Amino acid sequence: MNGLIIYCFVVLVLQILSLFMLAENRRTIPSLHPGKYPVPPKEQAPKVSIIIPARNEQENIERCVRSCLAQDYPSLEVIVVDDRSTDRTPEILAAVASGDARLRVIAGLELPPDWLGKNHALWQGVGAADGEFLLFVDADTEIHSSCLTQTIGYAREHGSDLLTIVPRLENVTFWERAIQPAIGQLVLGWFPSKAINDPKKPGVASANGPFLLFHRESYEAIGGHQGVKRDIVEDLTLAKKIKKEGRRLSYLLAPELQRVRMYTGLGEIWRGWSKNVYVGLYRNPLLALFAIAGLLGFFVLPWALPIAAVAVMAVSGYSKSALAVLVLSVLICLVAVLWRKLIAVMYGSGENKGAWFQALGFLVICGIVVNSAYKSIAGKEVSWKGRTSTIESG
Question: Do residues 253 and 347 make contact, with C-beta atoms less than 8 angstroms apart?
């Protein structure tokens, strides 16, 4: 029992230190809100090409495209690459395009064997674009009407070669609320936002794939999507290339400017994260084992200890050791819930309904890590949007 007391004390201290790390990350990450930059005159507004890959996105594509066309920014074009969809995506796009000449729909070419689908679609979109800035937006997102005005304003003022934003993550179903904020908790709590934005630290980079705003010259200088054509986590690789070349990466908090609903249920969450979690762990099996052990020890086991301590006292009678484990483990759980709720408040996500189910969420994440590692190491195929591909092992 003494070992459990020490374990609980260590985890509690680490949880509290993590709160301070969260506060520091929030203090140092730049924020962007509607109204900060005025709408520029058209003659002073560099053209922006918004490029959206769409494969079987009939549930999302109209909302996404219409939000892009509703921008108050005066000089833009929207290019959607229909990546050989088999649902109603082409029909929906045709109807929207008929009412706005700024929207162009490109029929995607057959996927070459040495490309991944999304990267190939975006590369085709770039070939049709003529904007000075290139904005890559995922089809499952919606952007605020002043999003372009604000992000272009910031990029021009600060000389950003790549600007990416932390959006508001929408979670509707039980499993979304249990799992998705848990992943966001790891990213927002532990990613060093100050170092990410520091051009003097080229080894620290991050980016959010649903929103990548490049100055075109910089995008082409690092090889664009052709240089990451087999990369599942292409957003992170592109961000690393930007910093490695000595260019400026801007990583901003902007939940009012973009909403994202990544997945709609447990099955999508499992398949979606399984295709890239192991890649994000550098395809390192030891790192994957360390991550699983850390998640179980830091986020899952503490939630079982209060029940275990009460059960021990119910069977064996009162003991100071069992009471200490009970008190410390309850404190750990309360700090963990506070951590999640602070993220919701400090980062403007507004999502904390799954805070009390985070142990379940982290347990599922452990399973996703195992599944992702297995599929990569064994050369198994993963399926997404009706296509199969292999997670390369290194």
Answer: yes
Q: Domain span at residue 288?
A: 2-24+282-390
pLDDT bracket for residue 351 (50, 70, 90)? low
147 plus 250 within the same structural domain: yes
Sheet of 103-107: strand order equals 103-107, 76-82, 48-54, 133-137, 211-215, 162-166, 249-253
This prediction has a pTM of: 0.92
What is the edge-to-edge ordering of all strands in the sheet holding 141-143? 141-143, 258-260, 168-169
Check whether residue 67 and residue 138 sit in a common domain: yes
Identify each DSSP E strand in the chain by its residue range: 48-54, 76-82, 103-107, 133-137, 141-143, 162-166, 168-169, 211-215, 249-253, 258-260, 381-384, 387-390
Q: Do 71 and 37 have their domain in common?
A: yes
Same domain, 362 and 332: yes
In-domain check, residue 334 = yes
The string of DSSP codes covering 2-54 is: HHHHHHHHHHHHHHHHHHHHHHHHHHHS-B--TTSSPPPPGGGS--EEEEEEE
Model confidence pLDDT, tens digit, residues 312-324: 999 888 889 999 9
Tokens of 197: 């934005």
Q: Which of 219, 252, 215 is nearest to 234 (CA)?
A: 219
Q: Tell me, yes or no, whether 271 lies in a domain.
A: no
pLDDT surpasses 90 at 183: no
How far is Cα 18 from Cα 12, in angstroms, rounded to an integer?
10
Whether residues 213 and 294 fall in one domain: no
Query: Same domain for 111 and 238?
Result: yes
Copy the structure tokens of residue 20.
């301070």
Distance CA 183, CA 176 (A): 11
Take residue 137 and report the two structure tokens written for it: 């937006």
Residue by residue, DSSP assigns 159-195 as T-SEEEEE-EEP--SHHHHHHHHHHHHHHHHHS-HHH
Q: Count Cβ atoms below 10 Å from residue 265 Cβ, excluding itself.
A: 12
Tell me: do 150 and 39 sit in the same domain.
yes
